[in-house]
Amino acid sequence: MTRLETLLRNLAAVLGGRISATEAARGEVTVVVPAAEYLEAARTLRDHPELRFEQLIDLAGVDYSAYGDGGWQGRRFAVVVHLLSVTHNWRLRVRAFCPDDGLPMLASVTSVWPSAGWYEREAFDLFGIVFEGHADLRRILTDYGFIGHPFRKDFPVSGHVEMRYDPGERRVVYQPVTIEPREVVPRVIREAGYGQGR
Hints:
Elements: H1 3-15, E1 21-25, E2 28-32, H2 38-47, E3 55-63, E4 77-85, E5 90-97, E6 105-107, H3 116-127, E7 130-132, E8 161-166, E9 171-176
Parallel strand pairs: 2-5, 6-7
Antiparallel strand pairs: 1-2, 3-4, 4-5, 8-9
């Protein structure tokens, strides 16, 4: 039995009904857990001796609204967690979809892996995903007065205001965008005979 098969067997035996989907591709395992089971599944993944995922490597928000050229039929927002078991030397990807697209919300896993704190703040800031139970959920990358969530697919590519420091006023000021929109077409230069057999 390969390591991947062992991991899949252990996941099925330990988590069982808490897993709504499993995928093994390119040497990696991904499990999908329902939002209601997310926190308890995280505790089990960390604590069960057959799994022992002690480290959270990464946590990211995902906006699936334009996935598959707009053909996606599932929930819009998900949280993807990458885990590492030092004990067993294997990795796992866990995905949980937020049940409400209007107010995406999931339980915080900071009580399981404290390192999730900043990652959850980033997902909140950039995608608007609220992590219930997070002790300090506030913006981490954008300005405190920033409106919107810039990694959402429907966020405008070009803004309407810009921010700069004004030395005369000795503060940051907002003003209308001063750059005219333009389309940049790259110029391709190729040597004579490019692509022809020599």
